[in-house]
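Technical annex, item 7. During the second reporting period the consortium partners agreed on a shared format for inverse folding records so that results from different sites could be compared directly. Each record opens with the tokenized structure and is followed by the designed sequence. A conforming record, contributed by the partner at site C, is shown below for reference.
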């Protein structure tokens, strides 16, 4: 049974892009100027990954957005000498009751991946998505199963709050990998936002064993700056338990 040690989850990244797009369009949740879609905006993120098996890593990512278009470049490197450069593109479209993000990414070493993620509804909405890769090795910065389907639901009907519940389920390689997320976003003030993502995963790991574990991440945005701390058991369905720390800024 083929199991990818370095499979990227494009669904998580596509839904992150979709959520960011919806936040910009929602004055109540975003707290950003209405003309932000006309600006060229940048987001720089630096991350460290502390591994329980001593294979620590760093990652740097730069995103450039203008209107419905977003491109990014990044580089990941770990203590064992594995490095990977990547480049990608998101396109976001709003058709009223249907919002869609399509994503494509390329990585050094021959990796290619595509994804489509959607919201269907108004303040309360369904979430549907799918991703596919060319099965080339690539480190998973989404930390969810790849070659997967996603289904879920969410709501922005609560004041200054967004809640979503969804599952990402691998449906191509017969690894039984799945991850279920409960995400809470809260905006206490115009310049601040708190995001908490709690998840449970299960499936066959890199060594052919069935594992299950949990992950928890918390992100705090203040103005143009943000910081994120996460703990992830069996990260990418490996033996490694990761502590992830990220800082960044938008400009």
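Designed sequence (site C submission):
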């Amino acid at each position: 049974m083929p199991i990818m040690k370095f499979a990227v989850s494009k669904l998580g990244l596509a839904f992150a892009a979709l959520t960011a797009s919806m936040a910009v369009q929602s004055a109540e949740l975003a707290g950003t100027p209405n003309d932000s879609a006309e600006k060229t905006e940048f987001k720089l993120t630096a991350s460290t990954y502390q591994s329980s098996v001593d294979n620590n890593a760093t990652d740097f990512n730069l995103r450039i957005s203008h209107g419905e278009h977003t491109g990014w470049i990044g580089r990941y490197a770990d203590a064992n000498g594995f490095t990977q450069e990547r480049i990608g593109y998101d396109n976001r479209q709003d058709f009223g009751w249907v919002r869609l993000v399509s994503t494509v990414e390329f990585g050094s070493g021959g990796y290619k991946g595509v994804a489509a993620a959607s919201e269907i509804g108004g303040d309360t909405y369904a979430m549907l998505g799918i991703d596919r890769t060319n099965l080339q090795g690539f480190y998973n910065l989404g930390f969810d199963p790849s070659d997967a389907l996603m289904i879920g639901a969410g709501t922005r009907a609560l004041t200054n709050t967004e809640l979503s519940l969804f599952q990402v389920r691998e449906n191509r390689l017969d690894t039984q990998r799945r991850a279920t997320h409960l995400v809470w976003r809260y905006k206490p003030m115009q310049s601040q936002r708190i995001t908490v993502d709690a998840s449970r995963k299960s499936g066959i790991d890199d060594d052919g064993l069935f594992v299950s574990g949990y992950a928890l991440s918390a992100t705090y945005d203040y103005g143009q700056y943000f910081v994120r701390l996460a703990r992830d058991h069996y990260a990418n369905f490996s033996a490694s338990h990761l502590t992830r720390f990220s800082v960044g800024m938008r400009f």
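The longest helix spans residues 10-25. Residues 10-250 form a domain with the Porin fold (CATH 2.40.160.40). All partners now use this format for quarterly exchanges.
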